Amino acid sequence: MLDSSDPRWVDPDVVRAAQRGDTLALNEVLDRLTPYVERVCGPIALDSGSDAAQDTLIAVMRALPTLRDPVALVGWVRAIAVREAVRHARRDARHRGSSDDLLERVPAPGDPTLAADVRDVLERLTPEHRAVLVLRDLEGFDEAATAEVLNLPEGTIKSRLHRARGRFRKEWGS
């Protein structure tokens, strides 16, 4: 059973009212979605997670009238959030260098200055690998659902997931 803190609990009638321009309804929809959007964007976009979440909510606000089925709200928002988070992560990677460049700057294994935490390891993965890990391991999606959200073939998801998990394990152990 869903509780009122779950974004899927948004009443379809409230979504329809927001689609018709009801400002209070739109605020309720966005308030309900914000924690979920932040939870999806943060681990993918890292330092730009809040920017990606904000861009997601702006995109949702602007495109909400085009949503055909209010019951599909959360899935639709999830796809937008992942897209925005990956876009921000790619932009950040271009500004600081590629993931491989980042890996070369990481202290050697055994260096006492190296703090082994999840964020540090995630930062060394590509945005595409972070997106697959977030959807599969944090959101609990299966390969088919992950493939649908990322608009990729299931085989691509399986191979990215395998590479992402392997890279994560390798970097975590460093």
TrEMBL record:
GO MF annotation, one: sigma factor activity
Alphabetical list of SUPFAM superfamilies matching this protein: Sigma2 domain of RNA polymerase sigma factors, Sigma3 and sigma4 domains of RNA polymerase sigma factors
GO BP field: DNA-templated transcription initiation
The keyword Aminoacyl-tRNA synthetase is assigned to this record: no
Family matches, as InterPro entries: RNA_pol_sigma-70-like, RNA_pol_sigma-70_dom, RNA_pol_sigma70_r2, RNA_pol_sigma70_r4_t2, RNA_pol_sigma_r2, RNA_pol_sigma_r3/r4-like, WH-like_DNA-bd_sf
Keyword Transcription belongs to the record: yes
Keywords: DNA-binding, Sigma factor, Transcription, Transcription regulation
Positions of the RNA polymerase sigma-70 region domain: 50-94
Gene3D superfamilies the UniProt entry points to: 1.10.1740.10, Winged helix-like DNA-binding domain superfamily/Winged helix DNA-binding domain
All copies of domain RNA polymerase sigma factor 70 region 4 type, residue ranges: 117-166
Family: Belongs to the sigma-70 factor family. ECF subfamily.
Protein name: RNA polymerase subunit sigma-24
Organism this protein belongs to: Luteipulveratus mongoliensis
Organism lineage: Bacteria, Bacillati, Actinomycetota, Actinomycetes, Micrococcales
